[in-house]
Amino acid sequence: MVSIGLIFNRRSGHYILHIYVPSLSLVILSWLSFLMSPSDIANRLALVTTMLVSMVFLHGETNTSLPPVSYAKASDWFVLVSFAFILLTLLESSWVYRTARTFTSETGSKQVRNKKTWLQCFMKQKEDKMSAIDKQSENHCHGLSSEQTTSNEGHSSLAAFIDRISLFLFPLFYTGFNIFYWFYYMY
Description:
Number of strands: 0
Order of helices and strands: HHHHHHH
CATH superfamily of the largest domain: Neurotransmitter-gated ion-channel transmembrane domain
CATH topology of the largest domain: Methane Monooxygenase Hydroxylase, Chain G, domain 1
CATH architecture of the largest domain: Up-down Bundle
Strand content: under 5%
Shape: elongated
Distance between the termini: 33 Å
CATH class of the largest domain: Mainly Alpha
Number of domains: 2
Helix content: over 70%
Radius of gyration: 24 Å
């Protein structure tokens, strides 16, 4: 009886350049939102949402170029976890924005009546210096109590603290995942 054994090896360079490097880049780019102001929610969400859509596109392109199989491949797991990290970045951005906008229960009722936050008044004053048209709004902003501005600053500093912690923890956990992933699939 004659038997033949065939061993096939794939070159990993193609997969590294077309799957792993773009996924890694998208995850790292999504972390730029941690460096943005907590109140800049539009730009933060635009950045992270763009990274999410790019990740979905990358996964779709990857699957069309590979043969279909009935199980999750190693590259699928990598892309899926990278997608999860970007999604968590989106959730963190929303949480930070919410934290920056939330006020304590004592100043909450005053804030609802005044309908202007310290940050809005600050921005309005900057605009008023350029136009000098809306003096009533400027006077309203000077009337904010120190309790309200302290509350706003406290929540802003909490939001900034969450961003700093996230800027440390997200890369740490993603690096841990990469170490586990490459050791698991290489050995």
